[in-house]
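Example record

One chain of 58 residues, shown exactly as stored in the release files.
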Amino acid sequence: MRYIGHSPPVALRLRPILMTTLTTVFGMTPLAIGMGEGAEIMSPLALAVVGGLACRCC
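Predicted structure tokens for this chain:
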């Protein structure tokens, strides 16, 4: 059997990684842009998390 593109084990592993990354990025976005209670304290951490995940995922 011949595979075109990625093999099935890689595709099966990629989906949960992308889902976890996207939920974390979307969850941290309000803190990163300064919305919500305590956002001024947590904003640098949220920016670091979102930036790190965005760079690692792409």
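Notes: The radius of gyration is 16 Å.
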